[in-house]
Structures are given as structure tokens and as C-alpha cells.
Amino acid sequence: MSKAKLVVIGGDAAGMSAASKVRRAQADREIVVFERGKHTSYAACGMPYYIAGQVRASDQLIARKPEVFREKQNIDVRTHHEVIKIDVESKKVEVRDILQDSTFRESYDELLIATGASPIRPDFEGIGSDGIFGLSTLQTGIDVFEYIEKHSPKKAVIVGGGYIGIEMAEALLELDMEVTLFDMAPQVMTTMDKDMADLIAEYMKESGVKLYLNEKLDRFESENGMVTSVITDQKEEEADLVILGMGVKPNAELTEGTSIETGVKGAIKVNKKLQTSVPGIWAAGDCAESFHLVKKDQTWIALGTVANKHGLVAGINLSGGDIEFPGVCGTAITKFQDLEISRTGLSEKELEESDIKYIIAKIESRTRSGYYPGSDKITVKLISDEKSGKILGGQIVGFAGAAKRIDTVVTAITAGMTAQNIVDLDLSYAPPFSPVWDPVQTAARRLV
Q: Which of 273, 291, 318 is the last residue of a domain?
């Protein structure tokens, strides 16, 4: 067994998945994990539901606490420790002990960078006011929850209409707040095509969200240090709580001044084994690139599913294995109240930027047989290659039972299946679950 010392920077999904895999394979190896926060292995995607009160306690979002890693797996997890520099030549990292306000250097034989991503937080006037939050770590979710309990805000403004923005709009409506959402784009959910995003926007407005698109954030007003309003290029909106959902960026600052290369959107450049440009240094999770199965090129996608799989692949390779991360399709799923939303592959908008000729099919159907109780609307959009017929992407918006059908689409993309192949699939059928032709197959029929 290898005695090489492994240092991991970052104690969430990718970092702890890798460390745990290495420990299972190599019981006597020294593993040190530095995490600048107080939590490890938590479900950040659950934060909106915790804030809404649908998850009883923040501890329920923690898969494994630091003491469990230390006591049961013999992984030296050090929370409140931030790595501030990587010395590639001497194979050491410089670490700041946040609680002691001191620094020290730690040596490594192999290094895994799993620093995740951070919310984009431009330097707008007033952005430091109390009551303005970006969501990334579990602690930020706890901070929002505690702020709401203490101050009982009534008027919430969300800046950004992506996944976090939509999920937080639902959460804050659940808490009986007035909710306003601004986005500088002409649509919510820019990872989807506008015709599908418009279905989401309409439902949000019907549910009570004041939605303003094509508006740019200008500044925040505050009083006694607490936010009072949000100013855009078109209007002023009162607010005693602001959630920033303006996207995220990879935490790749540690590569600056080193020979570790970065790539797409500033993420750390890795090969399919998750190795960086420097031997002995690996990167995984939201700070690192991935290979896109449809684009056939490097991409950057910050999703928990990807981070966990990155961690597993990195862990296998760090413990002597030889495996590649096959790639991603950008599959994602969310909901706003009863409306389910999912997407995978490339959108029509993305394909217009490529040289790929494509055709589309968009259908409206029912989630169950029309006569069965609970049957509701579903809209499916599929995109296929004009020449080969292979599926390139899919988007689904609908009600109960709609969104998880995207898994059929991503399976088809991964397997290189054509629209006709989807039509030919022997999918299950019973009135409580689907019409006799599943909506995904109905859309596929329009492509052949």
C-alpha cells in the first residue's frame, strides 16, 4: 500500500468522496483534509428547503460530520483551516488556522484541490449591507435561516433567475413574504431555451412572484447598515431581505502564480483522470473542468452530482486505480412549487453557436393517461442531429411526474441513441404513470 501523504483542499462533496475512497483502499495512508468552513459533506442543494422550514434542522443536510471522518475513518479533517497558497516546487501548502489566526506549512506527496465554487458577488454600492446573502456553503444557508428568524423580513428581492433564484422564490413564498425577482436576461433559467423558460416565468407570476426581466442591478440602499431597497436601471424595489442568485464561479484562485493551468471559465484544467497540468496534483468538483459528451469538448458545470462523481474517480486514481471520468451532459432538475423543470444536453440556443445542424420537436402531453385522476400538463422539447438523428438535448416542464423523465433523454444521449431508438424503447405503461405513448416518445416521434 502507498504511504504517500495525501492532502485534500476542501471538505465537501468531491474532497470527502475522494478521501473516503482512498481510505477504503489504503487503510494506512496519511490523509489530511483542510476545510475553511465548519461543516463537511453537506447537501447544499437542500438549503432552500431548510430555509423554508421543510427540512427540520440543518444537521439533516450533513451526510457526515468532521468528527466521524476523524474517529471512524482516520481522516485528519481540520475545519476552520484555509489553504492560502500552493508551493508546487516544494510540494507544500500554506494554511491559515482561522480560529487561531496563525499560518503554517504542510507538506504533501499528492494533492487534491476540491475548493468548489462561490456565488458571483459584484462590487455594487451597498452590497455589504446586512440582509444581503449569497448561497453556497451550508453556513450561508444557516445564516439566512437565522436572519429570517431574528428579523422577520416581509419583502424579499431575489437577483437572478437561475436554479437558486427559482428555488429561493418558492422558499420565501412559503414563508409568506412578498417576493420580487430581477434578472438582466430576457428570461429565467438561461440554461433552457426561451420558449420553455417562458412557461416557468408565467407560472411564477401566477403564483405571486413579481418578475422583472431585462433589468440590470445598479445598487442597494440601506439604513442603519441594513438593506432597505434594491435599485435597478429601471426601478426601485423595497427589500428587507435580498438573495443573490447571479451564478457561481470556480474557486481556482489557488492556481494563481503556480504552473497549474486553468481552462473553461477559469476552472482548473484537468484530464479525464482528474489530473491537473502538474504531476501529483489533482482537481475535482465545482473548481474543475469536465468533458461534455455532446460538445466533445471541455466545459464547466457546477453540480453536486458531478462533484460526487469527480471525487470518486479522483479517489480511485489516487489510490492506485486507473479510471476516467466519462463526461457530463449538463443534466439538471428543479421545481417551483408544483411545476417541475429539467434539462440535459445542449439547448437550441447553444447549438446555434456551434456548427451542428439540428432539428427540434416540442409537444404538449399529459403526465398520466388523460382520464386518470391527477393527470396534468407536460411540455417536452427534444433536439436531434439533422443528419444522424442522434439526440443532442432535451428540456421538460410540467407537473407531477414530469421532470424525472429527463433521465430517459440523458440515457439516450449517453448511449448515442437516435430519436427512432427512443420511439422503439419498451418503456413501461399504466394509466397512473403515463399515457400509452410516453411524452418523451411522443416528442421523439416528431423527429423521425
A: 318
